[in-house]
Amino acid sequence: MLGTTRIKETTKTKDFVSASSGMAESVCTEDAFARFVSLENTYQLEPYTRFGVRAATVILEDVLTGYLLEEKYEAQRAAELSLTMCTVIKERVKELRIPRFKIVVLVYISQPKDQGMQISSRCLWDATTDTFTSHSFRNSSLLAVGSIYAVYHE
């Protein structure tokens, strides 16, 4: 019976759901608990606190500079660095604990060889609550542009 589990007993608690099968395995996930919880709407249309643009900009500058200061441009390495930096930036911005904002992080890395790079983005935007910050970094062999978008989620 590999891959199949018959659930005999289900126990709900505040933090997790534990389900025991006939093979003495147990499954504990917060996602399973979330299926049983129904939340009321708050009808909160505006955030209680504003998104910290300056703090996010400092994080963006710090990560771009820290990762790319001594880096030489290589196409494969640039793709890996871009993904890594996006993850690090997003986690550090989430540590600011500003509730109800969706965070989107983009990092572009290019080689500056007598060419231009134009970056544009479009999205549905509420100018009173949504915001963004951007920073560019350049060394002798690469150019990087990072952006953080904070979109309020009702």
Automatic annotation (TrEMBL):
Alphabetical list of InterPro entries matching this protein: Tctex-1-like, Tctex-1-like_sf
Q: Name one GO biological process term.
A: microtubule-based movement
What's a single GO CC term here? cytoplasm
Q: Which Pfam families match?
A: Tctex-1
**Molecular functions (GO terms):** dynein intermediate chain binding
Into which family does the record put it? Belongs to the dynein light chain Tctex-type family.
Q: What is this protein called?
A: Tctex1 domain containing 1
Upper lineage is:
Eukaryota, Metazoa, Chordata, Craniata, Vertebrata
